[in-house]
Amino acid sequence: MNRNLARRGRAAAVALAAGALVLTACSDGGGGGGGGEKGGTEEAEQQGLVQFAGAEESQGPAEDVEGAKPGGTIRVFQRDSYAHLDPAQIYVSDEGSLASLIHRRLTTVKMDNDGEYSVVGDLATDSGERSDDGRTWTYTLKDGIKFEDGSPITSKDIRHTFERQFADFITEGPSYVQSWLAGKTEYRDLLPGGPYKGDHLPDSVLETPDDKTVVFHFKKPQNDLPYALGMPGYGVVPAGSKDTRQKYDKDPLATGPYKIESFKSGKSMTLVRNTEWDPETDPARHQYPDKFEITFNHQNDDSSKRLLSDTGENQFATSFNNAVDAGTIPQVMGDAEAEKRTISGYQTYVAAFAINMDRIKDHDVRLAIAHALPIKSILAPYGGAAGGELAGGLISPLLPGYEKGYDPFGKLKKPGGDPEKAKQLLEKAGKVGMKLSFPFRNATEEQQGSVAIADALEKAGFDVQRKELPADTYYDLIGKVDNKYDLYRSNWGHDWVSSSTVIPPQFDGRRIEDGGNNYSHVKDDRINSEIDRISAIADPEKAAPEWFELNKYIVEEVTPMVPAYYYKHMQISGSKIGGMVYNNDLSGIDPTKLYVKQ
Amino acid sequence: MLRFLVRRSLGAVVILLIISALTFFLFYSIPRDPALLACGKNCSPEALEVVRRNMGIDKPVPVQYWEYMVGVFAGRDFAVGPCPAPCLGYSFVDNTPVWKTILDRFPTTVSLAAGAAVVFLTVGLGAGMLAAARRGTLVDKVFSAGSLVVSSLQIYFIGPLAIALFVYQLGWLSQPEYVNLTEDPAGWFAGLLLPWFVLSMIFTANYTRMARSTMIEQLQEDHVRTARAKGMSRPFVFFRYAWRGSLIPIVTIFGVDMGSLFGGAMITEFTFTLPGLGRLAVQSVLNTDLPMLMGVMLFAATAIILCNVLVDAAYAFIDPRVRLS
């Protein structure tokens, strides 16, 4: 989105709102889901916890994909070129999908043939040994793991991988582990400039007692570490002269089943087999096709039409990230043969509308907005049911603790809005006829939705002032604390399968600042104290329902945001492509399971 | 001739300097911050400053412009490596050298423009001359009306229709794509055939109308009538005198058209997913990628100016009465 627009995280939302995936929470996983040639995840399957796996589940090889045979070339149509190949700079979903083929990290999210997800050891023998209440985590590296040049991966490389995250030129990847190691958000002064001047993190922070062992020491318990280490942004980079710093972004050493044979930025990329990759060490990946030939600049409508046509070489093609565009969805759904070649599932994002609580202080007015919003009309331009599912809460169906059917405002029954109820609330507040400043992006889908929104709010008694904003600066404008807007769309996606990456960033009242993510400017003592309490719960299984309860309190009792829908994604491939499975962790097709039908 | 070329070259440098300054300073008047694009999901003010410093946009705009222009003539050093002259910098988005990217995209654009030019010159001039020669007949009326209809169509309309019909439905043509000419000449030809015809349709219509009107004008000239009166055959007079005389306005427009096409046929490249300069220009605007935008602008401007100089020089060869001074 999106690597086109405003701040990267915001760009994601911009692009998503425009109907295209740009950024995902790269290491998120979802319980269940996926599986099977036909694909198509079921809601019930996607709920549940992603468990931390032990040594046995972390062993390779990955179980075979039914019917898969090695050989052949798969063509891949992508919209955006890859801006970054250095794993430390990777955060967006399209690069995350690529990373699943070329970069390995300490842990990864594995989806088995039954569609069950778990966090397994990738380079490490397991998902990590926790001690000292989660302040210390120990990892042991597997035997036989190598870079593409044949050099073995040692703990020295792992140390270097994390130390270089502190270098000034690393700015676009995740920052969780660095912040946890430093014990604060502004982490760079822990190792200024990174390891390139000979300095290293002290053993009290990161310890590598031998070639196989890596020990992380945190100031506070970090119970989500195995999730975070599975993010593509923590892929291993070699120590020494092979780390070419900024240049590494163009020519990295692969550790996964494929390596880069050629890359012409903005045009094409060819991936070939990495002969140094040992399947015996990898529990999550396969190496079926001989090659992936990727070309860029294919908009969703272009790739959809090519793949739907299933002509010539399009039979052997797919896209890692492009969705079937809203205009082509009816054709696909009306063609039984084509529909068989699709997969779909949830994306990490929840579309919602923030209410500026600095300007709208009366809870009844916020409730009136919640009841009035026509979420069905908001979703319609994105393809209706194929583009999303109407939402009752702020927690994605992919997250543990999600309660299906949660609908505090009765919007699932009245998706067109309830103007009578809204009007009653507005009358109760004595605010009938109040002006409501409503900005929206100048993207087609939002322009369409904005008309329906304004109409519904007018019926409820608001005097709506629509303001069209440039898509690429939208999040900058609404991100200002003193913005003059009342109601604005803001989407959010989790970084891994925990609501700890959803609630605190958006609703912690201590994080209100220009450019921050608390768009509604909510400041609520109970929310803040609950965030602290639940964050300290070590067991993710126990924390999950607590987060959902806090979500209920936020939506019902404070109402700083009105949920609209959960993003969904449909993809299509050519008829000669096998192994099509939707992977929640990648928010799309799983490239590691693809094969060419012989 | 030499004086002419020197004078035009100096003029071109001045124009390029003006374009570069306008582009550079206009870029910074846009309320967008390229650093925000490259600052990760949870960008902090500290991280944003680091990104600005890495990009070199933490300095005053005039200083940035000066350093940029110095780089163009003398080269510069960047953290990702040295950038020899003509250094157009590194892309903000993917850190690739701008000059290298432009050179990589140029063959696509040249292939598209040159192929289309062959089609629209051949068909357009041929149809126009035929219509002029048969003025007032059914042929003239069909060509004139047809060119009016075709010139009213748009590439973004007929392009997808042509793909749907000839590629997906009938399967007569290959999926449009650019393949390197030296690697696979047949693939190059097959991949560009549809874009050539679609792009040339608009131009063909224009050149048909232009060739017809200039030919009719020439056929009414005194020297043409004199030649006929002297007993020269109609075809000889047509090609020896009238056709040659009609070329000046056509060459002038052709020079401008080719300059624009070498700068990038944006809509065609988007319609057919061709990685040319036009597409690169649009992407650089969308990405707030100043170095790439500057590079493409300067390159396109140079192409247009160069084509115009060539056209001026060509006048002397087409019409001996024209003297370059």
From TrEMBL, chain A:
Source taxon at top rank: Bacteria
Biased composition (Gly residues): 29-38
Region called Disordered, residue ranges: 29-48
Alphabetic keyword roster: Signal
SUPFAM superfamilies the UniProt entry points to: Periplasmic binding protein-like II (SSF53850)
Solute-binding protein family domain span: 119-510
InterPro entries per record: Peptide/Ni-bd (IPR030678), SBP_5 (IPR039424), SBP_5_dom (IPR000914)
Signal peptide: 1-27
CDD domains listed in its UniProt record: PBP2_clavulanate_OppA2 (cd08506)
Coiled-coil region list: none
Chloroplast listed as a keyword: no
PANTHER family from the UniProt entry: ABC TRANSPORTER SUBSTRATE-BINDING PROTEIN, PERIPLASMIC BINDING COMPONENT OF ABC TRANSPORTER
The name this protein goes by in its record: ABC transporter substrate-binding protein
Annotated source species: Streptomyces lycii
From TrEMBL, chain B:
Signal peptide interval: none
Transmembrane intervals: 12-30, 112-133, 145-168, 188-208, 247-272, 292-318
Subcellular localization, as worded in the UniProt entry: Cell membrane
Pfam families found in the cross-reference section: BPD_transp_1, BPD_transp_1_N
Membrane topology (UniProt): Multi-pass membrane protein
Family as reported in the entry's similarity comment: Belongs to the binding-protein-dependent transport system permease family.
Protein name stated in the entry: ABC transporter permease
Species of the source: Streptomyces lycii
